[in-house]
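Page 47, continued from p. 46.
Same chain as before, 209 aa.
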Amino acid sequence: MATESVTDVSRLDWAKGGGLLPAIVQHWLSGEVLMLGYMNAEALAQTQASGKVTFYSRSKRRLWTKGESSGHVLALKSIRIDCDADTLLVQAEPHGPTCHRGTSSCFGEAVRPPLGFLAELDALVAQRHAERPAGSYTTRLFEGGMRRIAQKVGEEGVETALAAVAQDDAELLGEAADLVFHLAVALRARGLGLADVVRVLADRHAGRG
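Result:
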């Protein structure tokens, strides 16, 4: 995904917050709200120039780049302005936990959208495809080739259908989870991801009016 930045900074209402704007940081794939910080004009400019989310620390009275000491940086994906031009929505890819307490979000783990984990799963499958770590089941699938992956998708599809007809909810959910995982692997082997499937579904939905 290409980085998108605020281009018309003249729209921003810096005066309302005394030269600072609240910046809500959201995981660019899962939609999880990661943290809230504040930016002045210099922090915004540095964020755009460096590609690493940078804030103005009200306590330290200086700029600080998230992860400058921990290494858990937030890689910028996009910045958008709200309707009143006094709040920023920053979409980023976190490299490690965002919160100093070790959680993905400063608001706790419960804020992750219910379907947001699918994005994390898709990203993990993509990472396995690129790195091929030894001992990983996903690595073995990729190295087995598309025929083997397709076979697993077929097997899991049949098992999911059978569970829907003849087994309880727990069995159905377990088989469905296996199917979604192997489908994600098959898509990645073709250079695609679950997000591409979502786009097709969204396009179809929009086409219905």
